[in-house]
Structure prediction request, 979 residues.
Amino acid sequence: MEDRVEATITVNGTRLTRRIEPRMHLIDFLREELGLTGSHVSCEHGVCGACTVRVDGEIRRGCLMLAVQADGKTVDTVEGLSDSGELAVLQQAFHERNALQCGYCTPGMLLTAQALIKEHPEATREEIREFMSGNLCRCTGYQAIIDAIETVLRTPRTEGVR
Amino acid sequence: MNDRIDPHRLDALAPQASEVEAPPKPGTTKTAKPAKTQVGYVGQSVPRANAKRLLQGRGAYTDDLKFPRLAHVVFFRSPHAHARLKKLDLSRAARQPGVIAAFDGRAIADYCTPWVAVLGHLKGIKSPPQYAVAIDRACWQGEAVAAIVAETRAQAEDALGHVVAEWEELPVVTDMEDALANRTVIHPELGDNICFARSFETEGFDAAMKKADLVVEETYGFGRHTGVTMESRVILADYNAAEHSLTVYHATQAPHMMQDIFSRHLNIPEANVRVICKDVGGSFGIKVHVYPDEMATAALSVMLRRPVKFVADRLESFLTDIHAREHKATVRLACMKDGTIVGFDLDDLTAIGPYSVYPRTSGIEGNQVVNLTGGPYAHKAYRAKMNVVFTNKNVTCQYRAVGHPIAVALTEAIVDLAAQKLGMDPAEFRRKNLIADDAYPYSFPSGLKFEKLSHHQCLDKLLALMDYTGLRAEQAALRKQGIHRGIGLAAMIEVTNPSPAFYGVGGARISAQDGATVRLEPTGMVTCLVSVTEQGQGTEGVFTQVCADAVGVSIDKVRVITGDTGVTPYGGGTWASRGAGIGGEAVLQAGKALRANILDIAAAVLQVDRATLDVRANSVVDKASGEERLPLAEVGRIGYFRPDTLPMKFQAELTVTRHYTPREYGFTFTNGIQASYVEVDTDTGFVKLLRHWCVEDCGTVINPLLVDEQIRGGIVQGIGAAMLEECLYSAEGQLLNGSLADYLVPMTGDTPDIEIAHVSTPTRQSELGAKGVGEAGTAGAPGAVMNAINDALAPFDARVRVQPFTPERILKALGKI
Prediction:
């Protein structure tokens, strides 16, 4: 058994120090050790995007990163970004458009979509499809997701919404 | 009451259904907004309440659950497709850190009896006994032969490396035709490799076919593929030794079916078994079967007297989640010069792996192909032959649309070929042959009965929706520029709302009825418990709508609970597009009965004739004037806390249960038609899906938003089958692409925008009138895409016939490689 390594990570605004098995993936650490089960495990080899979380402001696959690699970094998950209200507009658009069915891919979709909104606010429909192409959804067929994101991009933003 | 605004009064002031704007038209759900009315929810695009927790990552899927003393099981699986286990030594594995126990198949068989998946109405179907963990022999790569339980999943996986197994490889049968030839018999005790065979012929078939002017024939291949649910299979079994009771948290579509199965195979009284479905991350038919590793997990909980969880990882999912659709089918179509179809002749071969899957059997998909081939058309002659054979690959069973994608694709492909040979436009050829809209009730040559379908209305609507004429002109113009586009149509029928004819008559303890309990709470809230389950399709949402209308309350007053055998009425669950149609009718009838009981109480309280009262907008009102007489919170208060104020012999009944079973027809058929528009790059073989259309008749549309998204999602799964998805096996029976890196599924870039419209022919079997819709998209899409590609390839005199239509297959058809 490998020796545990101490790491200090700020998760959803809370700084915490844990001794972590070096081989533990970030997604397993969040889910198993911290009980943050909103981010999901689906393929565990970096294809599906269900485990997407934000590390130091950039979206990352929680299954392709070790938890100890997050030492000294900031990690945000769907729970924290829901509480802060950052995802509220997207969540409402997803809800109204029924851009989710089983909901398993949804936290990853939301985090990726929020990155798109921040980085490419002028994205065309085709560009939305391209940006979201690393997140697998097996239920919706994607159109509702693309529609919901497009709605948010095209809606004039009010101060304080984000 | 205090001075604060009473929400009941606000609701009472809200407009009635007749005064509000019409529900959004089907196909225009892009701009759908939450409904604002408090009555008339059925037919409106109401967003579903249960989506909110999922949007915040605050759902609870089974893998999210943690229990004291929770143990984790992993399985040691056969690396060979067919091999005898000469030696299995678990002693080293059992000594690894954190390991609680390691068992072989024999040890587990002491606690879990084997099963044989046959049904009485599939005459002659056979399969060998299957154990939770295989004993002595593995029959496919991935079959479990040992279980290791540890304190953590990681520890259990570490211990797997210490299992010592010696194998003697046995002859492998992977090819369907080899299996049918019986040169090597996988289960010698069964005599041959044929699990199930069926043949069928209408009277005078040969004579009818001989009179035809044209007979076309082709052979089509369908690759085996699988469901790829985002949430893999998960089960957490929690045995209580003191009570001899078992609580199973299970990502399943059929909790009552599983309750019965756990009870019978683990020898625990059924009343002591409770199956609970938390949020389920997609199912599509994958989660409606009995999986040996899941049965083993339940047995291990009993053996170890503690909770045990099994989560299939993605690689295990590819090896052990049911596969589906491996078919090779030759079909002949006979028609007259004027295009009238005389008959169809089908020869289908399908391979199901080494076992028929329990308890639904693996004979159903082939059976459906026989039942449904030629389905939309008015021919009279039909002959079918079908063989279901065992092979040494993973098992196959019912996956979304079961048999329909095969039957629709081969029917529609041969129909297009016939039209092409006659020089007829494919739309006109269909118009000539689709069963007339006034021909119902209609008996189909395969014996099926159709209550009422709307093929011609759907065809007309589709052609208008897609601007068929304009598209043909565009196609012709682009062809001159060397751009090769194709238009494909696929008409379809679909089995929904099955009666007991599907499973019950064959002896399976699978309920065709469903139940709903509706209860008025003291606060005026309504709780609705339904035996149908939720996997994301929105059943809880539509039940909320139906219940609100039936009782007379706003939807925010309704809470729906599903997926718990300890709580809900008994029922079948979710499969065969049955949830909304069957469960919804049960909810409607229970809600209406509760409304009547509420009026009884109100009439007693108000001392008026019950017939003068109604329930609207969360209150009992005067029926004529609409004036509020008694808020439902007051009915609840009196009914529960002050029944002493009611007449002496009057008992308030504020909980009502009703059930519903479709009886009149074996299946409530739906119909629809899809169209695909594609562009084929004849240099690379790549196909770009440009547009897709679907016109569907699922009867009453309870929620256009949810229905349309179900159809879209279904179409994209069908597109996956047509374009990308195939479980590839080597000749030795090794799965070659069992990961999401290698097995391709549609991503955002692979899918077109999809337009949907509806024709509504409600079933008259139920008051709600809803037919099923969950599988329609998947049923029709592969056929439409196939025909579109072949239409694009027509100038080259090339055709593709084997799904998925990979660039390689297209280039081969073009003679370029």
